[in-house]
Structure prediction request, 235 residues.
Amino acid sequence: MLTDVLPKEHMQQIEQIETWEAAIELASKPLLEAGYIEDAYVKNMIASVNKNGPYIVLMDYFALPHAKAGEGVNQLAMSLLKVNQPVDLKGNPVKVFMVLAAIDTDSHMQSLRDISRILADEVNYQCFISGDLDQVYQILQS
Amino acid sequence: MKFLAVCGFGVGSSMVLKMSIEKACKERGIDCEVENTDVSSAKGTDADAIFTSQELGDELKSSVKCPVFPIKRYMDKEEVGQAIDQFQENGGN
Prediction:
């Protein structure tokens, strides 16, 4: 289940944040504290956007920061940061940062499948972008 | 038909893009195999078309023979579907 990889303790919501880099750092904090990832992974996620462009913005307002699988990752995990005021990520306004820490090339496939399925529904998507953490958690459990 | 979904590492965004391509192809009745991969592996892989971001597409275009379609929103089935329609209109068998 998605919430096994992304439990409520990994979710945060704030009003606003200065930069997308700061957002990725803050979003990663629960995973760093739990020892699932290391600082290097956070740096790699930010470096990837600077090198490869903003394609991690998978839908309007929704970004999936990630970097190379297994490098600075100790365990498959995800975390989520909701920012009420959209923050700019190289020309794209973002309100949800969902960090993916992948340990290999495919063990996170089911989680991504679940997220794709959930966000394909317009009502779920709106709630995911604009709702509070309780609402988001409920959607992720569906 | 073989398509490649490409991102910087071949694990996250490209996997989502692969799912979007598969969904769009299924809706159109296109029989295809989609592989997600990173930029450098994509350069050495044969495919009928490559789907990736604008930035990575610019990098790839010079090293591959097949058409490269830039996608802005990897999870946007509509946008991915339009790119596939375009591929077919251009005679992508």
Summary: The two ends of chain B are 8 Å apart (CA to CA). Chain B is about 45% helix and 20% strand.
